Amino acid sequence: MEITCETARRFLLAKQGLWPAPFNLPLPPDYNPLTATLRTVEMLGIVQVDTISVVARNHDLVLFSRVPGYRPEHLDHWLYGPERRLFESLYPLYIQPLTDYRLLRQPGREPSVKARQWEAEQAELIALVLSEIERRGPLSSRNFENRPIVEGGWNVVKDVTNALWHLWYYDRLLTAYRRSAVRYYDLSERVLPDWVDIRAVEPAEAKRYWAVRTLKVLNLASAAQWSARFKFFYNWNALSNKERQTLLQELQDFTTFSRVRISGLKEDYYLLTKDLPLLEQVAAMPDATSPLGVSFIAPLDSLMWDRRRIEELFDFEYLWEVYVPATKRRWGYYVLPILYGSQLIGRLDAKAERKGGRLLVHNLTLELAHQRLAADAIFQHALAQALHRFMRFNGATHLQISSSTPAMLGDRVGRLVEEID
Questions:
Q1: Is the same domain home to 23 and 46?
Q2: Do 10 and 87 belong to one domain?
């Protein structure tokens, strides 16, 4: 089957819950953003967490762009409340449905030789941490006072921080709740609901699960893109490149995966066979089939995970420049791609000044190929509506746009936002 890049984009965005624009669709009478939050995480499969809060945090931005009426407390309800259905897992940190908990116990998640050696050396510390949590309930590293400072992660930390992270990584502790960004740990058996399956997993089951799960999360990917993400999810060293290629072929032979050719691209792409009806439906749609809306995409949104895929399908170059020295940044510290319809058309570099109630936009930039949109009244209003929603979500009451490209866009859209108020 051969499809156009436009069809590929629409299919990918539809599977991601971003097309048609969710804020432009009528909501059903029984719509509930709390329920929609859970369904969206289940649809995405994995939501990446990041604690940087220049504007709202990454995981909240992911859900804000897809769930009308979303608030962070909706996610907290499913992560930490009595109806817990989600949990924090792996590193980097992800939010996943608890139905996946058992499959995380795959080969490679068992402590390595180095980890077991560290456990033996730190047996007294680990016993202390576990006994204190068992006795006192959920604790963070802040609850352990006057502890030695050691090397750990990005910087120096308390020795108990390393122990807590180690026990969490290997499933002996889980996140009970958070206060702001601080994680409080409890014993896994006290956190997990009774219905969660914790039986051991056979290696073959785990391998196949994560092979399929990877494509479910990516939705549409080349062999190289699938292989790289599968390696990351499953276990860096569990399978060789040749073994991953063999597994990919097996999944095609069993008709779990299907292959499509995208016009103008050298490599074929893959999708789950069960998603072919949606792909065919999207391919049959005429161009003007849905109202256009603007969304701001989180920098660690799964849509943006593979930069090559974004370049091939959207003709959009993207690099998250948080860790790039300021003098070498091209676009800004914390930049969000701007989605309009099925195209990534620009970038938003903004900061929420929470004490002053202001959303400061350092730069609002349209890509050169899309700068004609600056004079389009429909786009101007869609962008103004999106900025107004974004401003309110970040707790701001007013907007300041310091710079825009084209220059006239910032003034025009700024006035439209004021009119909404």
A1: yes
A2: yes
